[in-house]
């Protein structure tokens, strides 16, 4: 081999060596800190939630690191994002990239098969089954039953009292409605025992998953086990009744889900999935609606002009309704009341945001987000963005006169896109029926103008939201 060929061969070997040994440039992760091992920012995050300083906590992160930052929550590397583009990405992202995700404490208490923890085809199947019960066509037939629950509640807990604590009463009311429509259980000792179990269970949803005696998480697990045993017994009873044809699949949620399994095999749910998702629906219906109604009562006690407009609308409906009970058509006339509710949700969303699990590496805003991390969004930061909602701190129901004028993925109190909350119509009915009977039967004023609250993870008023009530002459 001559010198020229040797030199060419040497160059080829050298090039091959550098090509094989050259290091891949490190992937660029979002700015931020992971904090202490395992704990990360979990304790400061939970403290901010429980002291209602989470907005300031998130704003500090944004001002320090920008709109995309990394941190560690519940032992998992996390990316925090917010804004319209972030919401759109999360709600429309391929199910192979981002999947539903909940903190370990939530999954262990509510079960691995609840809709908020499922991904891909399983999520679509379970969601489809739940939507079959929660769609408007089905809910129309339950308006009268919810009307009766509200009137019974008002008669029992409001009439004859000078002062009432709104938040615990609204939780009782929404639970009673859920109990009736999910379980088919009327008032009595069983309901009382169930609401106590649910409250104990929910106390640990956002806790450190340390299962030691006397911890919040331990108490929640015990309550969850008892509630699950109760639901399993109900499933067995409904199955027997349906087989003997002495029960209607429209009786309640459990009967509906069992019936769907026979008529639509593609969305059939196992008993375990029914248990897990009944618990999830209970939590969503119990807390989100009660929080919204409590905030509305607070608003109407503080803003006389809004109160007067709602009273005018509701009294007109009360005079013109065609039966003793409210109907679906009556609810459709409550346009101003629902705009007020939507603006309340914009300013005080019951749920801060949501978590998604990263199923494979992806690029976002120039950063690599690795598989195994989680993504968290914050609805309140989009809702209070002055680039989207002018003068966002001002309460203005007129924003929702033409909801189409609000850019997509900017109002996300119920989620967005294909992932919009399947229970949003149920929440609308609960809220409108309740407000109708409160404003047509009572006047009220707040006993304390402070009315501060914490999040656990839903807002909890520190004094229960005490008000002084005065019955109207009917």
UniProtKB/TrEMBL annotation:
What are its GO cellular component terms? Answer: membrane
Q: What is the designated name of this protein?
A: Cytochrome P450
> Binding residues for heme, per the UniProt record?
421
Cofactor requirements of the protein:
heme
- Sorted alphabetically, which CDD domains does this protein's record hold? CYP90-like
> Which keywords accompany this UniProt record?
Heme, Iron, Membrane, Metal-binding, Monooxygenase, Oxidoreductase, Signal, Transmembrane, Transmembrane helix
Offer one Pfam family short name for this entry: p450
Q: Which family does it belong to?
A: Belongs to the cytochrome P450 family.
As for membrane topology, the entry says: Single-pass membrane protein
Record's subcellular location? Membrane
- Signal sequence extent: 1-21
Q: Which GO terms describe its molecular function?
A: heme binding; iron ion binding; monooxygenase activity; oxidoreductase activity, acting on paired donors, with incorporation or reduction of molecular oxygen
One Gene Ontology biological process:
sterol metabolic process
């Amino acid at each position: 081999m001559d010198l020229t060929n040797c030199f060419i061969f040497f160059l080829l070997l050298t090039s091959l060596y550098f090509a094989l040994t050259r290091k891949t440039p490190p992937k660029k992760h979002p700015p931020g800190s992971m904090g202490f091992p395992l704990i990360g920012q979990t304790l400061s995050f939970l403290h901010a939630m429980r002291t209602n300083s989470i907005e300031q906590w998130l704003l500090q992160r944004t001002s320090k690191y920008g709109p995309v930052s990394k941190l560690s929550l519940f032992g998992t590397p996390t990316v925090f994002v917010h804004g319209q583009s972030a919401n759109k990405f999360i709600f429309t992202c391929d199910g192979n990239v981002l999947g539903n995700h909940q903190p370990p404490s939530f999954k262990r208490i509510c079960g691995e098969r609840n809709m908020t923890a499922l991904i891909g085809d399983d999520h679509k199947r379970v969601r489809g089954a739940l939507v079959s019960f929660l769609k408007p066509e089905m809910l129309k037939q339950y308006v009268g039953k919810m009307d009766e629950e509200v009137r019974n509640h008002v008669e029992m807990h409001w009439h004859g009292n000078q002062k009432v604590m709104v938040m615990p009463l609204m939780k009782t009311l929404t639970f009673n409605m859920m109990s009736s429509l999910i379980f088919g259980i009327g008032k009595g000792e069983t309901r009382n025992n169930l609401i106590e179990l649910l409250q104990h269970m929910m106390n640990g949803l956002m806790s450190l998953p340390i299962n030691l005696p006397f911890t919040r998480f331990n108490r929640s697990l015990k309550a969850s086990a008892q509630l699950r045993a109760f639901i399993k017994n109900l499933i067995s009873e409904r199955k027997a009744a349906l087989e003997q044809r002495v029960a209607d699949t429209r009786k309640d949620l459990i009967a509906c889900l069992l019936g769907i399994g026979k008529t639509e095999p593609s969305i059939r749910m196992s008993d375990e999935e029914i248990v897990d998702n009944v618990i999830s629906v209970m939590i969503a219906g119990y807390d989100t609606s009660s929080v919204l109604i409590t905030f509305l009562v607070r608003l109407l006690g503080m803003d006389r002009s809004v109160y007067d407009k709602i009273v005018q609308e509701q009294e007109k409906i009360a005079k013109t309704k065609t039966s003793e009970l409210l109907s679906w058509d009556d609810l459709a006339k409550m346009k101003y009341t629902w705009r007020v509710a939507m603006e309340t949700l914009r300013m005080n969303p019951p749920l801060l945001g949501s978590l998604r699990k990263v199923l494979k590496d992806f690029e976002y805003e120039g950063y690599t987000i690795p598989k195994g991390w989680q993504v968290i969004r914050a609805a309140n930061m989009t809702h209070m963005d002055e680039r989207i909602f002018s003068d966002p701190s001002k309460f203005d129901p007129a924003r929702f006169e033409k909801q189409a004028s609000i850019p997509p993925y900017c109002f996300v109190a119920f989620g967005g896109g294909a992932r919009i909350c399947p229970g949003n119509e149920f929440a609308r009915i609960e809220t409108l029926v309740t407000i109708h009977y409160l404003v047509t039967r009572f006047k009220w004023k707040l006993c304390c103008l402070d009315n501060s609250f914490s999040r656990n993870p839903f807002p909890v008023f520190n004094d229960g939201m005490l008000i002084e009530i005065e019955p109207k002459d009917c």
